């Protein structure tokens, strides 16, 4: 088995999906988690490519967020769509990244991803609050590449 297959158990993924659903109950933003072994590209550029491959740039408010993790390379990126960057400060994701890193450094990947997802939801709520007409536009499942 590869590191990606061993990175999260089925139970871990289930709990992460529940965290995504919980976060999305407070915001119209859409959050996804994507795992890959590694990338030869700059992780930010590659996360942008994955973001588009997953169709995350198709949301009505352009407020999708991808938490991209290159497991074997020990790198991760939080990538948001242009609707987010039109409204938020430049350092918007820094606190989410920092919180995730605290967990990751200690090998607590499931907890780090959950913390990142929930923090992203809290941050997005300020700019993209949930309303009753909000529809879940993207899958909540953890994707793999």
From TrEMBL:
Domain TPM: 5-120
Pfam families hit by this protein: TPM_phosphatase (PF04536)
InterPro entries found in the cross-reference section: TPM_dom
Official protein name in the record: TPM domain-containing protein
PANTHER family: BLL7265 PROTEIN (PTHR30373:SF8), UPF0603 PROTEIN YGCG (PTHR30373)
UniProt organism field: Robertkochia marina
Superkingdom of origin organism: Bacteria
């Amino acid at each position: 088995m590869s590191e990606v297959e061993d990175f999260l158990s089925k139970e871990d993924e289930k709990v992460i999906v529940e965290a995504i659903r919980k976060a999305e109950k407070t915001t119209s933003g859409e959050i996804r988690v994507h795992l890959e072994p590694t990338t030869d590209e700059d992780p930010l550029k590659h996360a942008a490519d994955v973001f588009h491959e997953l169709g995350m740039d198709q949301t009505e408010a352009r407020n999708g967020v991808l938490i991209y993790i290159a497991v074997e390379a020990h790198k991760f990126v939080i990538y948001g769509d242009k609707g987010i960057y039109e409204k938020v400060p430049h350092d918007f994701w820094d606190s989410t990244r920092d919180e995730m890193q605290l967990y990751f450094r200690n090998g607590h990947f499931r907890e780090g991803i959950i913390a990142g997802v929930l923090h992203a939801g809290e941050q997005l709520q300020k700019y993209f609050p949930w309303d009753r007409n909000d529809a879940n536009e993207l899958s909540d499942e953890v994707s793999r590449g």
